[in-house]
Write a structure and sequence with these properties.
homodimer, mainly beta, six-stranded antiparallel sheet, three-stranded antiparallel sheet
Chain lengths: 188, 188
């Protein structure tokens, strides 16, 4: 970990970073209980524990004046009618924001507050999304064949709370419907 | 100011944002005393107080969990042999960082710490620069005809200290030399 300035490249056409300190791969088994169609989930898992998304992290000290950066890659695919998505999380320090810049692909960010407010924003290349403090967030790839690639930046002291979403899920789901992408209530 | 998530577009080919809360224009007269060649400076100013750079800011509450974003556009040009540049600054809260993503053009970031460490990093499209806490920073456009356009993000409680650089200048200057871009000591 250097305290000198440093650079890295967002390498197109893939959008992957030229420098990576940590590479996370999340497979189907990591999202048990999160998809609506449990039968389709188990049938897929019986065939292969396929890769849903990857995160390439740049490490920095986890202090308030630092920021953490990385690239998120959500692969295309569905479990039943539901698009591949990240686990999603609140920040452990709830009053911290996050900025996403979409580099490639098509998708949405599903967001909600502890008080039950919800928001869904579309992502496409060149779009910047500000997720204010207090908003849990989950990336969803709605492309048919292309990865959703985003560059994220957030305060380094934010931390992660995955447990709340693992227990309750998000209030909205993103499905592939006859007329395209459908945002529906999560009644489960 | 909304606390709901929001998006904006980085509109290419210019790289300008589709949403702007504040537009700053800095002209030659705002950098009095900063350029090496004072004669060339005065001669240019006598003709026109030309535009050196512009900043498009997105506003957020200036709290530690928030981040401020914007687009910086440094125009091409020189004062004598010295390329157009921003005023440059420390953050008032010294222990705060900044992330720059270059969207367009060619340039360098000139950086230094209060202890006298210096760093100069090249910027070109797709390059991400991490300016760690404690590093003053100045953008310099080294392109002949094209703007240097960067997208910046920094902790919202950082504040700005312009005075230190206004008084002392940076320890390095960026000049147009016979073999291209020259980084030289500021002996002034």
């Amino acid at each position: 970990m250097t305290d000198f300035p440093f650079t890295f490249d967002l390498l197109f056409p893939q959008g992957l970073p030229s420098r990576v300190d940590n590479h996370i791969q999340r497979r189907l088994s990591a999202l048990r209980g999160q998809f609506l169609d449990q039968h389709a989930y188990q049938a897929m898992l019986d065939v292969e524990d396929c890769l849903l998304y990857e995160v390439y992290e740049i490490r920095r000290p986890e202090l308030p004046g630092e920021m953490l950066m990385g690239i998120s890659v959500v692969h295309p695919g569905k479990v039943g009618r539901e698009f591949f998505m990240t686990k999603g999380h609140y920040h452990a320090v709830l009053d911290t924001c996050e900025v996403y810049t979409c580099l490639k692909g098509e998708g949405v960010m599903v967001m909600e507050t502890p008080e039950g407010e919800t928001a869904v924003e579309k992502l496409s290349p060149g779009k910047v999304l500000y997720v204010p403090p207090r908003w849990a967030h989950r990336s969803v790839c709605t492309g048919r064949a292309e990865d959703l690639v985003t560059f994220f930046v957030y305060p380094a002291h934010s931390g992660h709370d995955y447990g709340t979403i693992e227990q309750r899920g998000f209030r909205k789901r993103v499905l592939d419907g006859p007329k395209g992408v459908e945002i529906v209530d999560n009644d489960g």
